[in-house]
Write a structure and sequence with these properties.
Helix content: 25-40%
CATH topology: Conserved Hypothetical Protein Mth637, Chain: A
Largest sheet: 6 strands, mixed
Radius of gyration: 13 Å
CATH class: Alpha Beta
Number of strands: 6
Order of helices and strands: EEEEHEEH
Distance between the termini: 11 Å
Number of domains: 1
CATH superfamily: YggU-like
Strand content: 25-35%
Number of helices: 2
Structural class: alpha+beta
Shape: globular
CATH architecture: 2-Layer Sandwich
């Protein structure tokens, strides 16, 4: 069974990504295995692509960049990020963020 690319976790949502830096524009590009593929315009130099990725995800789901944390993969193309909504975040808010990410990446819920 494949791991879901976007899944609820206590206090937020975890996102599994495959990142392509130095793209012509920042955008989602469907699935790459069991991860969402994201093209990021920034170069992978001195954390530039990681910061651009955090900003891109924050804008996509409507949270501040400080709420998007890099959990795993700072120097890898495969990265896990967490969108932190807080300990007492309602289940509905977590699900809304999950749905926004799936919609933005062009994946129908249940098909991920």
């Amino acid at each position: 069974m494949a791991t879901q690319p976007v899944r609820p976790v206590p206090g937020g949502v975890e996102v599994r990504l495959h990142v392509q830096p130095q793209a012509s524009k920042s955008e989602f590009a469907g699935l790459h295995g069991d991860r969402l593929k994201v093209r990021i315009q920034a170069k992978a130099v001195e954390g530039g692509a990681n910061e651009a990725l955090r900003k891109f995800l924050a804008k996509t789901v409507g949270v501040s960049k400080s709420q998007v944390e890099l959990v795993r993969g700072p120097t890898s193309r495969d990265k896990d990020l967490r969108i932190v909504l807080g300990e007492n975040a309602p289940t509905e808010q977590i699900e809304e963020i999950r749905q926004r990410l799936l919609k933005a990446s062009g994946i129908q819920p249940g098909k991920e």
